[in-house]
Amino acid sequence: MAAALSDVWKSLYKSAHLIDTVEDEEFLPSSGRNIGLKVNEACQLIFSAELILAQLEEMGIPPGTASTLRIKLNRSILTMCAGQKASFDHSIPSLEKAWEIVDAKSGDFFALGCYAGARLATRSEKILSCFWEFGQVVGRLVQVGDDVKDLWDNEKGKSDIASGHWGLPLSYSINVLPEKDRARLKELFATLFFPAERLFTLAWRPGDCTLEGKVYFTEPAPLQLLVKSF
After folding, report:
1. What confidence tens digit (pLDDT) does each residue in 87-116 have?
2. Residues 14 and 90 in one domain
3. DSSP letters spanning the chain
4. 132 and 172 both lie in a single domain
């Protein structure tokens, strides 16, 4: 039963990743894998996962548990889609909103992956909440890593800086930098493209303020420190 749920989670995660690469235009025409093939593969994975979910009771999972898992898994995909849509908004989000997007895109889905397996073994809300919290932290780390990686040009020629996309690192910067540096960052970002090394001139020093397990920076320091601190 646990293996089946693991297959569902991996299929949905892979399908979300494929759709994300299409939405972000992260593909190389020379690779021979065009957009249509990626969409087709994503659809196969989604419906394969749904087919497994439709048979949970036949695998011996109690009806109530099976229904709960189906609902939570499908809701998590909708949450992920909402997070992806929010990330395309080119307005400057608050730091709180930026973290909400991180949770929506990856945090909650990884949380559910841990929760689903535990739900087969227990109904204890205390235990299940621990599994959920652990998975959510893992998901946050994955998304933060992706956001940092996408900050500058990659081998596919895509960059959050060049495309005017406010990922967590830039949202974080604009919310904690001193006003003078904040204004300079806005000025640079308004051009929609500038060399990443110019961003490094905005000084940072890490502070020691934490909230709900997240590290916040209260003083200026080099961007490299921000990346390492994640």
Report:
1. 777 667 788 888 998 999 899 999 999 999
2. yes
3. -HHHHHHHHHHHHHHHHHHHHHHTT---GGGT--HHHHHHHHHHHHHHHHHHHTTTGGGT--HHHHHHHHHHHHHHHHHHHHHHHHHT--S---HHHHHHHHIIIIIHHHHHHHHHHHHTT---HHHHHHHHHHHHHHHHHHHHHHHHHTTS--TTS--HHHHT---HHHHHHHHHS-HHHHHHHHHHHTTS---HHHHTTS--B---EEETTEEE--B---HHHHHHH-
4. no
